[in-house]
Fold this protein.
Amino acid sequence: MAHSLSSAKAQIKTEAFRRTIDGSQVDLYTLKNSNGLEAHLTNYGGIVISLTVPDRTGKPGDVVLGYDNLNDYIGNTPYFGALIGRYGNRIAGGRFTIDGVEYQLAQNHGPNALHGGRKGFDKVVWKAEQVEAGDGPALRLTYSSKDGEENYPGTLSCTVTYTLMNTNGLKIEYAAETDKPTIVNLTQHSYFNLKDGGASDILGHELMIKASRFTPVDEGLIPTGELRPVAGTPFDFQKPMKIGARIGNDDEQLNFGRGYDQNWVLDRQGKDLELVATVYEATSSRFMEVLTTEPGVQFYSGNLLGETRKGKSGTVYRPRAGLCLETQHFPDSPNHPTFPATDLKPGQKYTQTTIYHFSTKS
């Protein structure tokens, strides 16, 4: 059974996946804006399954990596398109302290905690609700993470709203509240390929990141605490640069991640939504702009994708078939007092907004 909510041109359609996980129904939602951009989302993990964007000729094409069926997302997936929480990125040793109490998280990435644990927000069923938004069709997802879930303290009530804006942006608005002091760092883990959705690599994509510093890491990809200038390094994307131009350099930081997998310290003017990164692909002329309220962005060049199964339409995703620009607070912030704080106390509200905006340019 499918049903839809539509405005003059923008619309949203719901279809049952005919699948129940943890007692909750999993559905597929199709958002279509007034210009014909289309996004497929599911309330399992808040996953962006597809995002169809026109190229310079007007021909639509899917620009995110993923799978054709739900079972593959439930299996061993590299977080394709998913919402990440409670804590996006890594925490050293899976340990952090609040008010003198140490908490031990699952060590699901070597000795460290990654992306919320063994069953993070990418693996739960969110409650979905179609909502009216002035700038395009919107889907609101809610999830209550119970006190002690994945060993995090406090019940964390989360809301994430996806809006497919009529100005051709995918807007993601996050909010969270807690009943005990805790930590939170939510993000979105879509892999983008503006050329062909992952059939080829992203090394020819031109990337700009508005950041004069980044956070170097150790061999376990945990930040050392240093804020290192990007000038004179392969991490300088202050002007548009092809991703493949320096990815093969003999650089310790590149060697640690087998390519790019670091956090950039954004040069922000305030707390408002700002343009922080752009990606351009010359063959399609697709141009993506990233706007966020967050202090950092994790640029991951998809270095380990060759270890995954086949994707959509049988496409084999090779290493570097997609890139991630995960807007965030910094990795391991709870263990670095000089980093922007990720603690959340009762009575406070965590908020974050990120927009991935699409157009073409010559």
